[in-house]
C-alpha cells in the first residue's frame, strides 16, 4: 500500500476558480486510478493561490492481474486463420486451449494481463488529467503548447509506502519533470522544500508560511477580523462571498484593521461598503451603536517587519483616493437632485436605449408611470404617489454613483429621493421596486413600492412578449422568468385581487400593456400609414392603459386610417400574445407551487376554472384542493366522481344527449338513491355560499360529505336500469354530482 | 550602486531605473512611438512584434492619451496624457514574475515590507482583436501594473506567447515617492538647480487638451479623418507585394498600421466629444478591429513577421 501526493504548482490561480479546480483534480484523478484498477480508501484536495494539491490514501502497489479469454476459430479452421488469431492474441499454438462451442470445437486463448505498477498508472492518469483539465479559461505560455490556467511551473508526484519511504513518480510533461520538491510562500520562504508524504508536505508548507487548507484560511481571517473589530468595540460586517474570495488571494493571511478618513464617514453605509469591497476587497467594520461603517479590514499575504504599518498606510491611501471619487459622485448627485429634483437627474434617460424595439429608458419610465397610476388602487396606494414614485424610480440610473457602482441602483434612488424631498413611501419605492430579485428575496408590502414593482415588471414582460423576445430553454437574457415570478410573489404575498377594486382583470391589464407595446413598436410603420395619429399616440403615451387606448386606437381612430385587415391583425396579435404571456405566468406559478408541494394536475384542475388569471384566487383554490386530496375522503370522492363521470360520459355519447336536467327524487327506488339525493341537496346548500365567499376548504368539506352516499349508491344501484325513466333519472342524478363537483374544481384533470 | 537601493526621488528617476533594469535583463530599450496612442500596447514594438515566430524583447516608455480622462489638471490621479512603461518579451520567460518583482525592487519597492499580489485580470482589446490572461499587480491594495500573457493579437493565435508588462508610471511613481497629487510630483531631481514638478511640465497641456478634447475638437473633421485613415489603410494593403520600383517584395504592414493607430485615436477623441452613441460605438470599434486584423495579416507576410518564401 502507498499514499499518493500530487501538487501542481503554478503562477497565481484566479480565486474564483480554485475550489472547483481542486474538486476536479480529485474527481478526475481518482476516477482515472479506479478505472485503471487502483482502488483507494480516501482522497483530499486542497487549493491555494499558487497550488492545487491532492492526497490519495492506500493505493495498492500495482493493479490486479487480469485474465482475458479470447475465443478463436474452430479447431479445423484453415492454418491461415489460426495463425492470424495467434498473432492477434499474442500467444503460441501450444498455449491454446480447446472448448466446445455452439459453432463446434474452437480454440481458446487465455491471455494474462499482468498488473501494472501503481507509479506507471499514476503517471499516465496524471498526464491525462493535466492535459485535459477543465479550467473555465486556460492559456499557453512561452514557446510551449501545454495549457493551464496560468503558467504551470512544478509537479510534485510522490508515492509514500507503509514504511514512510517515498519515491518520485517518473513523469515529464512539456518540459516539467515531476519531483519531490516545491516552494513555500513567495516572499517569506522562497527556497526549495523537499517533501516525503502529505503530512510532511502540509507541515513543511506551514513552516514555509503557507496555510494549505482554504477553510482554515477563511476561518482564520474571520476569527482575526472579528477579534480586531471587537477589541475596538465594533463589529465585522459579515460577507461570506468576500471571505471565500480573499481566502483565495493569500497563502498566509495577515489581518489588518485600518481607519476610514473622517471626511468619508458621512457617505451612505452601502456606498462605503460597496466601494471598499469592489475596489479593495476590504471588509467593512461597523459601529453597532450607530450602524455606521467606521473602519475596514484588509487581509495581507505577508508578515511585514513593521507589523503591516506600511501596508496599512498604502491601503488607506488608496481607499482615500477611491472614496474621494465616491464622495465627489455623492456630492454632485446630491447637488443635482436638490437643485433640479430627481426629474432633473432622470433627463438623460431619454438618450439611453432600453431596447431597440421598446424605446428609451424615458419611454419605459413613462409607461411604468401610467401603469403604476392605474394599478395603485389595487394595492391601496394613492395613484398620484404611485405615479410620482414610478416617474423617479429609475432616475438614479443617471447618477454618477450608480454609473460607478451599478449594484447600488435603487439604494441610491432612495437616498436621492429623500434628498429631493420626496416622502410618503416614494423613497422606499425607489429602492424596493426592483424586488423581489430572487426566490429568497423579500417581497415588498408598502403600497407605493408594490404598485411600482408590479408596473415595472409587467411592463417589461409585456414589452418583450410584444416583440417576441421570450425566454427559450436556458436563455433568458432579460431575466423574464425572474420578473414573472416577481409578479406572482407580489400578487400572492400581498393577496392582490385585480378584478375587484379595478375595472380590469389581470389578463386585461396584460392585454392593454401588450397593445401599447405593439403600437409603440409599430410606431414607425403606423406613422407613415396613419399620419398625424402617430403624433397623437406619442402625446397620449402608449403606457395609457385601458379602454381609452382600445377605443381611441382600435376603434375610433385606426379604422379611418388603418386598413381593416391590419386592425384585425393588431387585435388578434394582442390577444394571442396576452394569452401566451398568461400561460407563461401559469407555468411559473406551477414551478412556484411545486416547491410548496402542490401537484401540477391540481393546478391544472384549478386553471380550468373561470377567472384563472386571478392568481390569488387560483392559488387559494389550488391549496384547498391540494389539502383536500391529501385526505381519505378527498381521494375517494375523486374516485367516486370519476366513476360517475365515466358512466355519464359514456351514456351521453351513446344517447347523444346531455344529462344535466331534472333528476327527481320521486323516481328514486332505493334508500341509497334517496340518500344521495338528500346528500346532494345538503351539499349544494353548503357549497354555494362557501363558493360565494371563496371558502374553498368549506366547499370541499361539504363535497367530502358526498363520498359515503356516492360509494353506497354505486354499491347498491344499477345506473343502467331496464326502466328507461329510472335510468334517465339516475343519469341526471350523476349529472348533478358532476355539476356540483365541477363548480369547485375541474376534477377530471386530477391524475390517478 | 548604493544609491540604487535608496528610493528614487523623482518621476524621471523611476523611468530611468526601469530603463536600466530592463536593459540589464536584455531588453532593447526603445523610444516612444511617434504617434498618438491610447496605450503602450499600440506601439508596433508590442502589437506587431508579438505576432509571428521571431523572438523579441523590448522596453520603452510610451506617452498615452485618453481624452475622456482629462480633468483640466485638477484631479490628483486623472490625466488625459500620461505615461505607460511597457515591456514585451517573446517567448515569455519562465521567470517573468521574478523579473517583474526585480523591477519593483529596482524602483525601491521592498517585497518584504509591502503586500504584493497578483489578482486575476483578463485583458482584452476589442479594437486590436487581442486578448490575454494575467493579473493586475497590487501593491498594498493599489494596482501598479498589468501583467498579461498574450494569447491572440489581431485575430491570430500567438505562437510563441509574449509576456507583456504595463506600468502606469504616474501612479506607480506617486506611490513610490509618497505624493498625493500628481501635479505635485517632482519631475526631475528636487535638488536640481531648476527643480520642476509634474505640474510645471504638464499642467498647462492638461488644461489645454481637456478643453480641446471635450469641447473644441471639430467632430466633422475628425469623422472625415477617421474615414480617410480607414481608406488609406486599405489602399496601402491593397498594393501588390512586389515593389515595381526596386523589384523587391515589400509588404507595407507598418505604414498601414499607422493608419490603424490614427483611426483608433480619432475614435477616442470622438468618444470624448460624446458624439458616438452606444450602438455606433460598437460599430466603430469593429471598424478599427478590422484594420488591426488586416495589418496583423500583412505583418505576418513580412520577414520580421516570420514570412518565408
What does this structure look like?
The complex is a heterodimer of chains A (752) and B (309). Chain A is an alpha+beta fold and 752 residues long. Chain A is 54% helix and 13% strand. Chain A is built from 27 helices and 18 strands. In chain A, strands 1, 2, 3, 7, 8, 9 and 10 form a 7-stranded mixed β-sheet that branches. Chain A has a 4-stranded antiparallel β-sheet with strand order 13-15-16-14, with helices on both faces. Mean pLDDT of chain A is 88; it is low at 524-553 and 555-560. In chain B, a hairpin with a 2-residue loop joins strand 6 (130-139) and strand 7 (142-153). Chain B has helices at residues 2-5, 11-24, 96-106, 169-177, 198-216, 219-238, 253-272, 278-299; strands spanning 28-29, 56-65, 81-90, 116-120, 123-125, 130-139, 142-153, 156-157, 163-168. The mean pLDDT of chain B is 93. Helices cover 39% and strands 19% of the residues of chain B. At the A-B interface, helix 8 of A face strand 4, strand 6 and strand 7 of B.
Amino acid at each position: 500500500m502507498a499514499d499518493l501526493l500530487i501538487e501542481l504548482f503554478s503562477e497565481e490561480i484566479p480565486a474564483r476558480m480554485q475550489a472547483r479546480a481542486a474538486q476536479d483534480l480529485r474527481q478526475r484523478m481518482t476516477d482515472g486510478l479506479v478505472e485503471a484498477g487502483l482502488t483507494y480508501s480516501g482522497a483530499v484536495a486542497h487549493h491555494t493561490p499558487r497550488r492545487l494539491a491532492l492526497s490519495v490514501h492506500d493505493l495498492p502497489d500495482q493493479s490486479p492481474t487480469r485474465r482475458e479469454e479470447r475465443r478463436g476459430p474452430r479447431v479445423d479452421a484453415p492454418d491461415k486463420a489460426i495463425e492470424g488469431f495467434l498473432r492477434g492474441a499474442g500467444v503460441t499454438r501450444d498455449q491454446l486451449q480447446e472448448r466446445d462451442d455452439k459453432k463446434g470445437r474452437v480454440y481458446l486463448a487465455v491471455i494474462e494481463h499482468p498488473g501494472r505498477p501503481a507509479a506507471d498508472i499514476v503517471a499516465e492518469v496524471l498526464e491525462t488529467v493535466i492535459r485535459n483539465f477543465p479550467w473555465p479559461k486556460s492559456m499557453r505560455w512561452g514557446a510551449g503548447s501545454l495549457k493551464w490556467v496560468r503558467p504551470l511551473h512544478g509537479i510534485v508526484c510522490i508515492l509514500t509506502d507503509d514504511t514512510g519511504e517515498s519515491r518520485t513518480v517518473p513523469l515529464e510533461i512539456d518540459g516539467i519533470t515531476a519531483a519531490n520538491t516545491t516552494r513555500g510562500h513567495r516572499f517569506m520562504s522562497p527556497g526549495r522544500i523537499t517533501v516525503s508524504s502529505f503530512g510532511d508536505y502540509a507541515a513543511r508548507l506551514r513552516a514555509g508560511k503557507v496555510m494549505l487548507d482554504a477553510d482554515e484560511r477563511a476561518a482564520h481571517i474571520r476569527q482575526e477580523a472579528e477579534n480586531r473589530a471587537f477589541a475596538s468595540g465594533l463589529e465585522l460586517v459579515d460577507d461570506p462571498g468576500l471571505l471565500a474570495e480573499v481566502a483565495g488571494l493569500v497563502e498566509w493571511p495577515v489581518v489588518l484593521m485600518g481607519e476610514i478618513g473622517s471626511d468619508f464617514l458621512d457617505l451612505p453605509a452601502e456606498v462605503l461598503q460597496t466601494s471598499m469591497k469592489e475596489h479593495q476587497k476590504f471588509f467593512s467594520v461597523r459601529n453597532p451603536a450607530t450602524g455606521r461603517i467606521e473602519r475596514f479590514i484588509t487581509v495581507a499575504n505577508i508578515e511585514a517587519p513593521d507589523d503591516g504599518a506600511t501596508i496599512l498606510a498604502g491601503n488607506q491611501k488608496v481607499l482615500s483616493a477611491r472614496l474621494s471619487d465616491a464622495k465627489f459622485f455623492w456630492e454632485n448627485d446630491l447637488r443635482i437632485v436638490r437643485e433640479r429634483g430627481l426629474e432633473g437627474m432622470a433627463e438623460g434617460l431619454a438618450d439611453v436605449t432600453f431596447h431597440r424595439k421598446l424605446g428609451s429608458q424615458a419611454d419605459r419610465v413613462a409607461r411604468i408611470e401610467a401603469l403604476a397610476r392605474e394599478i395603485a388602487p389595487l394595492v391601496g396606494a394613492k395613484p398620484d404617489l404611485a405615479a410620482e414614485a414610478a416617474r423617479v424610480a429609475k432616475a438614479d440610473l443617471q447618477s454618477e454613483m450608480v454609473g460607478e457602482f451599478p449594484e447600488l441602483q435603487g439604494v441610491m434612488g432612495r437616498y436621492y429621493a429623500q434628498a429631493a424631498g420626496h416622502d410618503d413611501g416614494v423613497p422606499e419605492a425607489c429602492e424596493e421596486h426592483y424586488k423581489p430579485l430572487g426566490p429568497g428575496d423579500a417581497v415588498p408590502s408598502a403600497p407605493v413600492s408594490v404598485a411600482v414593482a408590479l408596473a415595472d415588471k409587467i411592463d417589461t414582460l409585456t414589452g418583450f412578449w410584444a416583440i417576441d423576445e421570450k425566454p427559450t430553454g436556458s436563455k433568458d437574457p432579460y431575466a423574464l422568468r425572474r420578473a414573472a415570478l416577481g409578479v406572482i410573489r407580489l400578487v400572492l404575498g400581498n393577496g392582490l385581487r385585480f378584478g375587484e377594486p379595478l375595472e380590469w382583470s389581470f389578463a386585461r391589464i396584460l392585454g392593454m400593456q401588450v397593445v401599447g407595446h405593439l403600437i409603440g413598436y409599430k410606431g414607425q410603420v403606423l406613422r407613415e400609414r396613419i399620419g398625424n395619429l402617430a403624433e397623437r399616440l406619442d402625446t397620449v403615451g402608449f403606457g395609457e392603459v385601458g379602454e381609452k387606448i382600445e377605443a381611441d386606437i382600435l376603434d375610433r381612430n385606426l379604422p379611418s386610417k388603418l386598413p381593416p385587415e391590419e386592425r384585425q391583425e393588431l387585435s388578434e396579435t394582442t390577444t394571442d400574445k396576452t394569452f401566451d404571456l398568461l400561460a407563461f405566468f401559469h407555468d411559473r406559478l406551477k414551478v412556484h407551487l411545486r416547491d410548496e408541494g402542490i401537484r401540477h394536475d391540481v393546478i391544472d384542475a384549478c386553471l380550468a376554472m373561470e377567472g384563472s388569471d386571478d392568481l390569488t384566487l387560483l392559488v387559494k383554490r389550488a391549496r384547498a384542493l391540494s389539502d383536500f386530496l391529501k385526505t381519505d375522503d378527498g381521494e375517494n370522492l375523486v374516485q367516486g366522481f370519476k366513476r360517475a363521470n365515466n358512466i355519464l360520459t359514456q351514456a351521453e355519447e351513446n344517447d347523444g344527449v346531455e344529462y344535466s336536467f331534472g333528476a327527481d327524487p320521486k323516481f328514486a327506488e332505493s334508500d341509497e338513491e334517496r340518500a344521495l339525493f338528500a346528500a346532494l341537496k345538503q351539499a349544494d346548500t353548503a357549497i354555494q355560499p362557501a363558493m360565494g365567499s371563496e371558502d374553498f376548504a368549506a366547499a370541499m368539506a361539504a363535497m367530502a360529505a358526498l363520498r359515503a352516499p356516492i360509494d353506497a349508491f354505486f354499491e347498491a344501484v344499477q345506473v343502467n336500469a331496464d326502466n328507461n325513466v329510472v335510468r334517465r333519472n339516475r343519469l341526471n342524478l350523476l349529472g348533478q354530482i358532476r355539476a356540483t363537483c365541477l363548480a369547485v374544481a375541474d376534477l377530471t384533470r386530477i391524475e390517478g | 550602486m548604493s544609491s540604487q537601493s535608496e528610493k528614487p526621488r523623482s518621476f524621471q528617476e523611476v523611468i530611468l531605473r526601469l530603463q536600466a533594469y530592463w536593459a540589464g535583463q536584455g531588453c532593447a530599450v526603445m523610444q516612444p512611438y511617434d504617434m498618438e496612442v491610447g496605450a503602450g500596447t499600440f506601439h508596433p514594438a508590442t502589437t506587431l512584434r508579438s505576432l509571428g515566430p521571431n523572438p523579441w524583447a523590448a522596453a520603452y516608455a510610451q506617452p498615452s492619451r485618453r481624452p475622456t480622462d482629462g480633468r483640466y489638471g485638477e484631479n490628483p490621479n486623472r490625466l488625459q496624457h500620461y505615461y505607460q512603461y511597457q515591456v514585451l518579451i517573446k517567448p515569455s520567460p519562465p521567470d517573468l514574475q521574478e523579473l517583474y518583482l526585480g523591477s519593483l525592487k529596482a524602483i525601491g519597492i521592498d517585497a518584504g515590507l509591502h503586500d504584493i499580489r497578483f489578482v486575476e485580470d483578463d485583458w482584452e482589446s476589442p479594437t486590436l482583436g487581442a486578448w490575454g490572461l494575467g493579473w493586475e499587480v497590487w501593491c498594498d491594495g493599489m494596482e501598479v501594473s498589468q501583467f498579461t500573457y498574450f494569447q491572440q493579437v489581431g485575430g491570430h493565435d500567438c505562437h510563441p506567447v509574449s509576456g507583456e508588462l504595463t506600468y502606469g508610471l504616474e501612479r506607480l511613481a506617486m506611490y513610490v515617492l509618497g505624493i498625493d497629487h500628481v501635479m505635485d510630483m517632482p519631475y526631475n531631481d528636487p535638488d536640481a538647480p531648476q527643480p520642476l514638478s509634474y505640474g510645471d511640465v504638464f499642467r498647462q497641456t492638461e488644461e489645454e487638451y481637456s478643453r480641446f478634447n471635450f469641447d473644441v475638437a471639430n467632430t466633422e473633421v475628425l469623422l472625415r479623418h477617421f474615414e480617410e485613415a480607414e481608406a488609406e489603410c486599405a489602399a496601402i494593403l491593397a498594393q501588390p507585394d512586389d515593389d515595381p520600383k526596386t523589384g523587391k517584395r515589400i509588404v507595407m504592414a507598418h505604414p498601414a498600421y499607422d493608419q490603424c493607430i490614427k483611426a483608433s485615436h480619432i475614435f477616442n477623441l470622438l468618444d470624448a466629444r460624446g458624439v458616438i452613441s452606444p450602438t455606433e460605438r460598437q460599430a466603430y470599434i469593429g471598424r478599427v478591429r478590422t484594420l488591426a486584423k488586416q495589418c496583423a495579416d500583412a505583418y505576418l507576410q513580412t520577414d520580421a513577421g516570420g514570412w518565408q518564401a
